[in-house]
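Researcher: Here's the sequence for the chain we discussed earlier.
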Amino acid sequence: MDMEIVKCPGIYCGRNGDTSGNFSLCGACPRGTRRNDSNDLSVCELCGDTPYFYDWLFLGFMAMISLLLHWFFIDFTNSRNRTGLVILHISAFIESVLAAILTLLVSEPAGSFSLRSCKVLQLSDWYTMLYNPSPDYTTTLHCTQEAVYPLYTIVMVYYAFSLVLMMLVRPFLSSRFSNHKGTKAIYAALYFFPTLVLVQAVFAGLLYYSFPYILIVTSLITLALHLANFENQDPKSLLKANVTDGRNIAIMVGHWVLHGYAIISITELRDPQLHAPLIALVPFPALFYVLTSYYTDPDKLDQVES
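Model: Thanks. This is the structure I predict for it:
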C-alpha cells in the first residue's frame, strides 16, 4: 500500500523526484533548485529565473566594496608620498573586472555572462538555517539551502577570484613600478577579504534590502569628511582645490558615482522619466557644502559671537 504524500513541513524542505515518479523523503533542496509550493508534493524544481535589475545592483555593490577598499588602502598607506600609485589603482580596477568576468563564466549557465537564479521572495530566504522545522518537536529536519541561488555564494566566489588575482599581479607591479608602495595595501587586503566574506555570510540578507540607503548615507558622510579635511574652508579655495588637483577630482567624481548608484538602486528606475532626472542631483551635496562652508566655519562663528 502506497503511503500518501503530504506537503513537507517548514518553508524550505522539499522532495527530489526521479523520472519514474518516485520521490525522496523531505529534506534540503539541491543547490540551484527550490521547493514548488503550487502543489502538496513539495517537489524541488530547478530555478529558471534570471536576476532582476535590483539583484544585479546588489551584486555590483558587493563587488564595489572590495574595489573601494583596495583604493582606500593604496592611498591611505602611502599618505606621505602618493607618487607612482596610479598603476596600483588601475591594477586594482582591472583585477576586480577580471574577477567579475571569471565569476560569471564559472556560474550557471557556465561559459556565459548570464545567470540562472532563484527569485528572492523574503528576508528568510537568506537565512534558511534558522527555519529548520521540528515536525514532532523532538527531531529537527535540516533543510538549510541556498534559496537565493546564486546571490549568496557568488559574492564569495568573486572575492576568492579577486584575492587570487591580486596575489598574482599586485606584488610584481608594486616592486617593479612603485617601489614597493603597494605592500601594505596587499597586507590590508589579506584582512579585509576574510572580513567581507564573513559579512556576506552573516548579513547578506540585511544588506540586500538596505544597501542603497547604506551607500547613500556612507557616501555623503565620506564626502563631508573629505571636504572638511581642507585647512582653508573658504568656498573659493575649496572649489579651486577640488577642480585643479587630479586626486581631489577623482575623489569627487567617485562620490558622485556612488550617489548616482544609490539613487538608481533606491528607485530601480521604475519610472525612467521621473527617476532618471534625479541622477542630476548628485553634485548637489558637494556644492551645498562648498557654498555654505563660510557660514559653518568655526572661526567665523567665533567672530559673529564676539
